[in-house]
Every structure is written in C-alpha cells, then in structure tokens.
Amino acid sequence: MPLDLVTIPCRSDNYAYLMHDAASGTTICVDVPDAAPILDALAARDWALGQIWITHHHGDHVEGVEALRAATGAHVVGAAADAHRLPPLDQAVAPGDRLAIGDQTALVLDASGHTLGHLAYHLPGAGLVFTADSLMAGGCGRLFEGTPARMWDTLTRLAALPPDTLVCSGHEYTQSNLRFALSVDPDNPALRARADRAAAARARGEPTVPVPLAEELATNPVLRADAAPLRAAMGLPDAPAAQVFAALRAAKDRF
Ligand code: ZN
Ligand code: FE
pLDDT tens digits for 228-240? Predict the structure, then answer.
C-alpha cells in the first residue's frame, strides 16, 4: 500500500514532510523547521507522530524538534556523525542503515556536500527520497562544508535512483534556481515549461515540491553538468563532469 505524503510549508521558505502508513497507523516527520504547522497537519488528519527523521543540523531543519518531541513523544533519528550538533537523538544512524515505516524500508544515504553528515532517506518501495538541502528542486544546496567533489558524488548517486522517485527537498527555492538554470541552459524546452509551471504553482500559493527525479534529470543544471549545453555555458567542453558541476555551483553563488 502506498504511503500518504504531506508537504508542510514552515517558516519563510522551508518544507517539512509527513509520511503516513495507514495499514500500521505509523506517521513519520522529516525535518522540523518549526513545530506548530506540523502539529496542525497531524491534528487535521488525526495522525499520531511516531518518529522524526533529521536530514542535517542547520537550525532551519531542527529548531522545532524539541517542541514536536515534547508534544508527541516522537522518537528522534539523525546522523551519528552529527550527534554532537543535533538535538538529542533516540537513534543515531549512518549511511547504509535501514529504517522502516509500516512494511516499507527506508535506506539511509550519505548526502554530504551542503554539510558533512547530511543524510537523505530513500524509500524504494514508496518511490520517495528526502533530500533536504542536497539535491533541491532545480538546483542543489550551497557548499557550506563539503567540496564540490563531495556534492557531485552525492548528486551522482541520487541521480541514479529510479526516475519516477519523488524528490522531497527542503526549501521553496525553485523559482530562483530555475532563473539561474535558464541563464545557463536557455534552449532547454523542458526547463522553460517547468519554469512556467513553477510560476503558476507559486501564483496559486502551492509548493513546487516534491518533483519526480525524471524532471530534475531533464531540467536541473547541476544534474546536467555532463550535457553539452551546460559544458558550453561554463566554457568547459572537455572537463570532467565534476569540474563542470563545480563551475555551475560557483556561478550560482554569484548569480
Ligand atoms: Zn541547510
Ligand atoms: Fe536549509
């Protein structure tokens, strides 16, 4: 049975997600920018929160953890490598570990680059991956701690997931990301169509996430670093794709 997925806007431009398995009555929250909108979403559905899965230590992803734990008794899961800078963990996990929701398995993936210790959670049976500030809609997170090579390794592994996987990322940065994308990949019709759809969704007040991985592969410039138009835009026709990615990420920082 598929999982129910709820995208919850938090703060000015963050997202938390709820996953719910109706058969077992299990609900999991991925990241807690602040507790109030998540408690409202739980109450509206009469769901009891069982677990909180944290992607990384930045305040805009964890500041609501203690309030949500206090209100629900949820069990908090996060990276063992970052336990010293996360809220107290009930379960410390590492890449390669497995978690469960009902009869679905979640694989813990290393998604370092934005921070070292950033995790992603991939549920192959449900076709979901929670990427927070690693792979984002139309882009990727800034490289605060990792090298470009480390983020490129993360992006390459995420790009190899099944293309129908829904990418659940952590911010509403899509239109800004797509403006940069259009500046380096202007002749990509799929990208232009995506930018139009994103503008329409935002005009209706709707989130632009989650996004099927196939759409990211066709339009996200950081996943297209190996494609001829992006190589040409960066003036790197023959460089390794990781180097083209590094140039794209640096250009986005200056954009
Ligand atoms: Zn972050
Ligand atoms: Fe963030």
Answer: 999 999 999 999 9
